[in-house]
Amino acid sequence: MKTMQYILTCCSLSILLFSCDSFLDENPKGVLSNEQLNTPENVEKMVIAAYSSLGNDHYTEPNSPWPYGDLRSGDAYKGGAGTGDMQEFHFYETFTYLRDDIGLLDSKWYKEYVAISRANNALARLNAIDEADFSKKMIRIAEMRFLRAHYYFELKLLFKQIPFIDETVPVEEYINVSNVEFTSQQLWDKIIEEFRFAAQTLPDNNAEVGRANKWMAKSYLAKALLYAAYEQDEKHNVTNINKDKLTEVVNLTNEVINSGKYGLNADYADNFLCETENSKESIFAVQHSRNDGTLHGRLDWGAMLNYPMNPEYGCCGFHQASQNLVNSFQTDDKGLPKFADFNSKNLNTPDDLLQNNVDPRLNHSVAIPGLPYKYNPEFIFEAWWNRQPEVYGAFMSLKEVVLPDCPCFEKVNPFMSSSKNRDIIRYDDVLLWKAEALIELGRESEALPLINSIRERAANSTARLVDVQGDPTGKFVVGTYQPGINCTWTNDFARQALRWERRMEFAMEGFRFFDLVRWGIAAEYLNSYFAVEKTRREHLREAKFTKNRDEYFPIPKQQINFSKKLYVQNYGW
């Protein structure tokens, strides 16, 4: 009986299948074909998806460069609940236990290539659309190439030798693309080519805030050229500084400066507040949001670990300024940096800041016990707000956080964050790129007014740095460089001044380590830093930078395995 039922059932199904051609010809529900996706409306959605990768963030492998650029530069300690809390970040900071099988490095690599894949997907579909049907085709192509170049730029800084995949490579061929198909310099040229196309194609203004425009592309092109100008050998030594690339940096930054679209904010603080985001100083920023119809909005998840442990916040005490960084903000009686002896005296208390000349950018960048937190004179930062001050000291980072009563603040238990934008490129950066290029071209006299304009703005950025009585919270003294009066503006001195200024201006923003590698001084600088700082912080006792290795992360072992050993490991690993 069971056999007969089985035969009848099979026969019935056969009749059904062979007689219902229309059923078989229907497209599966919930699946779109390429033809259906390749419409202007749907391609626009693909473009937005590529942009969204800028904000697809997580604290374990953040888009913000703070774990990669601050912890590895001597500007910050990891923080948190001891060295075992986010242990991978401890490895970044000390270099000692870095390995090629660290999972978070593999995750970072993967996330960047997911972002690149979204740009490539959009580009492939844009290429398939007739411009007559989509008038913005070339603009969107330029936007996607700009974004793709940004993601490749970040990968290049972290891993040096990376596979370059564009929209012409079929997915099934990805596994055959080597990370050494192009040399390091050729990879820079590929990235530069992307930004150059974007700069030539994008409009001056591009509809919604956050979309790439010509000036964003010109600025990023200048940045890529500046990095590429410092040519490295296989061992990561800087062997040449390309003058042609530096000359183009000067020309591009001049275009951005002369465009009239950007300028320095009157107060440095306006770069780090929700209410003043997308200001005239912001050139390219991640556009975060909240109350946008999603569960938690597009919050800055990369900063979620970096709030204090007090009741108003609650977690997690990461990203703590180093003693070395805090000390570096001291100035002499002329208001100039104390290049030689800044680290011989520690700044720790409010009285220390009132008794010693300091650059006000210290109070904009670092939370110090006893002083107002984030410009609120009645909200005083205390040492116990730190999670483990006995390990990491009592300083914390300020720029990426917001006050608990800020409209852009939101708790995502047990963490918290905000919808405050994160700047990727600001106008102050453009000014200092130009100054750096001029100095390396032997035109240091032209760099002088650029550096002084940054210092003048710093000197005038004290209005928010007051206590409840309205008195200044530090003895703020910043002077400009005046050759023949307070300095001798030689090429060597100008280079030292430029490099110091970059540290002050972008403290705790994650750029410092990449500056040190670009200049070819990472090993000397960091081992000198460790020699002193490990006497202050026990967690650094084994820290050591290995020259010709630690300039870059290792290519993740999982990626080498995925490529069936096609990928070649970075030198030294």
UniProtKB/TrEMBL annotation:
By its UniProt entry, which PROSITE patterns does this protein fall under? PROKAR_LIPOPROTEIN
The record's subcellular locations are: Cell outer membrane
Report the GO terms under cellular component. cell outer membrane
Q: Which residues form the RagB/SusD domain?
A: 280-573
A Pfam family of this chain: SusD-like_3
Q: Cite the entry's keywords alphabetically.
A: Cell outer membrane, Membrane, Signal
Signal sequence, renumbered to the chain = 1-24
Q: Does the keyword Transferase apply?
A: no
In this chain the SusD-like N-terminal domain maps to 23-224
Q: Which domain of life is it from?
A: Bacteria
Q: Record's InterPro entries?
A: SusD-like_N, SusD_RagB_dom, TPR-like_helical_dom_sf
**Principal place where this protein is found?**
membrane
List the SUPFAM superfamilies hit by this protein, alphabetically. Answer: TPR-like
Please give the family membership noted in the entry: Belongs to the SusD family.
Q: Identify this protein by name.
A: Starch-binding associating with outer membrane
